[in-house]
Amino acid sequence: MQFHTTPTRVAVIGGGPAGLMAAQALARGGAQVDLYDAMASVGRKFLLAGRGGMNITHAEDYADFVTRYGRATGALRPMLDAFGPQAVRDWVHGLGIDTFVGTSGRVFPTDMKAAPLLRAWLHRLREDGVRFHMRHRWLGWRDDALRFATPDGELTVRADAVVLALGGGSWARLGSDGAWLPLLRERGIEVAPLAPANCGFDVDWSAHFSERHAGEPLTTVAIESTGADGAMLRKQGQFVVTAGGVEGSLIYALSAALRDQIAADGHTTIYLDLLPDLTPRRVADEVLRPRGARSMASHLQSRLGIKGVKSGLLRECLSKDEFADPLALAHALKRLPVRLLRPRPIDEAISSAGGVRFDALDGTMLKAAPGVFVAGEMVDWEAPTGGYLLTACFASGLAAGADALAWLQKTAA
Ligand SMILES: Cc1cc2nc3c(=O)[nH]c(=O)nc-3n(C[C@H](O)[C@H](O)[C@H](O)COP(=O)(O)OP(=O)(O)OC[C@H]3O[C@@H](n4cnc5c(N)ncnc54)[C@H](O)[C@@H]3O)c2cc1C
Question: Which of the residues 179, 200, 308, 339 could staple to 344 if both were Cys, CB 3.0 to 4.6 A apart?
């Protein structure tokens, strides 16, 4: 869609992946795009994501891919159908950056970094005429005008349409501080409270265990926990013991259900399988073998390779009597209960759940504020790590841009 008369002015607020994608769609559609961001530069969380090896999307079967958004799958599906994992990869390639699929199916830019991609993207956006206004913090509306705090004082801006892409509530120092929640609520827009997603959890470790084992990874373990639907979930992978709890990819993968159980019951318990490649029978046989004068700890190390943090966990979570009882010990090696007390604070989380409810939206437009569209993590969906977050941010940004263009066209007619 192109505007052939005076270009329509659209304000995009928030320069993360969702806002930048909305700006791209709008500029290509012929609108004059002004992008505002509170920070001194755009894409700070995107750049951070690139530091640890950025998963830009995931290569699993699309039918499985869309289910990763859980309850929000239905609402996000049309956006993902329009700009899904393959479209993301094609778009990255179009910016001159190659991608590869890792063994886990996660898709990475070839050098694993976000900076070259962001540089190329911003260059393209400037060529398309997008104007960037940094250090412009959106403060809400005065009548229908947008209020910004800028280094030169408060500024009021009028736009024909607005895309809000203000991010979630984690890593506030990178710009996404959730300060927009009350601004939307004041306007009568339904917003679910922000909650940590893909987060670690607190465990009441003893000082002895914490001092000895904090920072140690548990590789190749499985966790069983109760899923969102009440059924038992089992996942294998790795995580890290921290001074006050647990974190890492295996914990993040289960974190949404764990967080919700803690909210409902005040705590939850995960069950660790410290030897996921061995059957319970084999583990019991090895534990029950005669150990002569050897201590139980060295018996476990020589028969089953249990040492370090795994051995420490058994000591930490079992009573002396249980540790000395071969049958109880064999059972615990396959199903060691660890009680989680609370999620780590939202600011430490990889992402956040909650945000603008889909019920408050008509497509991506706020029902209570016609002409205002929303995209990215500020909308009420969540997903695991592995490229699903960025894919939905890109897809919803593109959808918000396209919806804004269609709405402008309709209102101009
Ligand atoms: C450590 C880490 C690693 C990650 N790794 C991955 C990964 O590998 N793969 C993946 O898919 N996802 C990853 N993510 C998640 C991903 O980075 C986010 O989901 C994504 O950046 C969200 O995009 P967004 O555009 O919705 O919001 P953001 O990227 O948070 O951008 C929001 C923008 O809005 C601006 N803003 C906020 N409030 C205002 C205001 N009032 N006025 C003006 N501007 C404002 C902010 O300054 C910011 O620039 C990672 C996140 C973290 C923290």
Answer: 200
